[in-house]
Amino acid sequence: MSDILLDNNIKFSGRLTSLFKNCPKPSGWFAGMMFSKKLGQIKVTGTCSIKVSVGLHLDIVADLYKTSYGEEYRARTVIVAMNSDDALIAYLSSNQFPKIGRVTAEKIVSEFHTDAVTYILNQPDVIKTRCNLSDIQLDILTKGILDSSVENQLQRSYPHLGSNWASAIVKQKTLGVTFDSIASKINFNPYRLLEIEKLGFKKADEVALLDCGLAWNDDRRINEIVKLSMIEFMNKNKSTYLDIKNPNNMSLFESLILKKLNVSVSQTFVADAIQRLINNQSFYLDMSCNQRNLYLAEMRDYEQTIVHEINRHLNRPDDVDKKAVALFKRRKKRNTLLLNAGQEQALLTCLSNHIAVITGGPGRGKTHLIKSLADIWLESNSKHQIIMLAPTGKAVNRMKEATGFSDVATIARFMYRNRGD
Questions:
Q1: CA angle 146-147-153, nearest 5°?
Q2: Residue 331 confidence (pLDDT)
Q3: Confidence class of residue 143 from pLDDT cuts 50, 70 and 90?
Q4: What contacts 24+ positions apart, CB below 8 Å, involve 218-225?
Q5: Is the peptide bond before 24 cis (omega within 30 degrees of 0)?
């Protein structure tokens, strides 16, 4: 039988009484039994920002499912509770703090009660002296709290974010290190969450609407949807711009927007959103030569940079390396090139120009030509450098096999490695 959703967004607190075999997993996921005054003894599964252990007090937001094994609460958010002495003792003696143990945890909490965490972070010397802690124990406590406290605060403030994404935000540090710096960015624009690797629009939109209280037509939401739809359009249409005068292009673009909005809107609404992004320079509208081509501003900048660089190379006053051309002619004279007439002409074109484009169908000898070009280029001058790039991993492997060169990469990987240059 498939699992049936009985209820959602149920909030409750309780103590973890047992864990199932091989739990928790390295990812933080666990399954076990929990006692809640509100619900009694229940089965819970979820992911926590720390490695849970029996005895921990947890605050949970979960969906209730009926499964073939009975009812199960699947947690959306799992937060370690620290609002009582018992809860804090369980936390400080958990797996999050190896070498601390329950006796030391009880000593700390008996001295400082629920202020213990504040003292550990802000007045470590006081807690070290009064509880007779070693430097190692204090370091374990400080690191353990810092690793989990930001994640807990994120989950409390943004319940629909979930433990995994709270953990990813802390680990990646893209939005900051402290809770205040991260929260200020999320509150200003929840779609900054898309800067987190692999976090998609659906999750960011859920946080924006349900945790941050954005209206469906908030400018921040509309702007992000239109920009993401533009990227999706470019991928589908294999283009770097949107031809506004083309009704088929506009129809596809609008359908992509409506799918994310999940609300029907007029063409005027879409046109106003586009104009707003043009005004704030997120989009660029090219109207030269009677065109109306809409670009993402950064894509337009990339294209302009490429055009500039191509023109710069085409108009370079310096000659290409004459040694390579001379070597080509010697090999041709000795009949050692092993190329047909078309390949020879293409090779000479490459050696005689700063930029060359060689085209041809499958099996026409382009890869063999590349090997000959690389051989001549390196033999003519040991200081020369060859960089081989291909669009896909499969093409990279083919190029390695055919040329014998090992330093070959995809275009995306090469650009990522050299993104600071």
A1: 75
A2: 87
A3: confident
A4: 219/276, 220/189, 220/190, 220/191, 221/191, 222/261, 222/273, 222/276, 223/273, 223/276, 223/277, 223/282, 224/191, 224/194, 225/201, 225/257, 225/260, 225/261
A5: yes
Under a CB-based contact definition with an 8 Å cutoff, are residues 208 and 215 in contact?
no
Region at 210 (left for phi over 0; alpha for psi -120 to 50; beta for the rest): alpha
Q: What does the alpha-carbon distance between residue 252 and residue 236 come to, in Å, rounded to a whole number?
A: 9
At CA 187, angle to CA 184 and CA 188, rounded to 5? 85
For strand 70-80 and strand 57-67, is the pairing parallel, antiparallel, or unpaired? antiparallel
**304: phi > 0 → left, psi -120 to 50 → alpha, else beta; which?**
alpha
Contact 85, 170 (CB under 8 A): no
Is residue 283 within 8 A of residue 223, CB to CB? The reply is no
Looking at the DSSP bridge assignments, the partners of residue 410 are 390
> Each residue of 164-189: pLDDT tens digit?
898 899 889 899 887 878 988 999 99
Ramachandran category for residue 113: left, alpha or beta (phi over 0 → left; psi -120 to 50 → alpha): left
Query: Which conformational region is residue 281 in: left (phi greater than 0), alpha (psi within -120 to 50 degrees), or beta?
Result: left
Instruction: In whole angstroms, give the CA distance from residue 321 to residue 176.
Output: 49
Average pLDDT over residues 67-95: 88
Give the span between the Cα atoms of 241 and 251, in whole angstroms. Answer: 14
| pLDDT for residue 420 is more than 60 | no
DSSP, collapsed to helix, strand or coil, labels residue 34 as: strand
313-370 per-position pLDDT tens digit: 888 877 777 888 888 888 888 888 888 888 888 888 888 888 888 888 888 888 888 8
Q: Tell me which residue has tokens 């909030």.
A: 11
Give the C-alpha separation, 282 to 219, whole Å: 13
**pLDDT given for residue 421 in this prediction:** 56
Predicted TM-score (pTM) of the model is 0.61
| pLDDT band with cut points at 50, 70 and 90 for residue 419 | low
HSE at residue 116, side-chain half, CA atoms within 13 A, is 28
Helix, strand or coil, per DSSP, at residue 308? helix
d(CA 159, CA 60): 9
